[in-house]
Design a protein that fits this description.
alpha/beta, three-stranded parallel sheet, 5 helices
Length: 116
Amino acid sequence: LYAYAETLAGMDGMKHDLSEILDFIDREQGFYEIVPKGYSKATAIRYITEYLNIPMEDTVAIGDSNNDLPMLQCAHTSIAMGNSSKQVLEAADYITTDVDKDGIWNALKWLGVLDK
């Protein structure tokens, strides 16, 4: 679920009323992603790796926005798109090119998944 508030006061009221059951992820410029409390992309990584018996050392995450931070912090190797938020750039092990400049392709080449 996504929310946009023209004022911080509007979002603060919603966060106050719903913070017991929802987490609000600041996507910057007044946009928020709203998820059930305690769940994130990192939750999904942990669930899938446990279910499929995949070592965490084999996990890679690629992200560009603040909603990706838990996932990037959870994965063994984290890659930020070149056009990522400042927080994502700081959290990443590697920074690839912008998403519209073949960022995924270049990240997969860096990982050795694609021929160089």
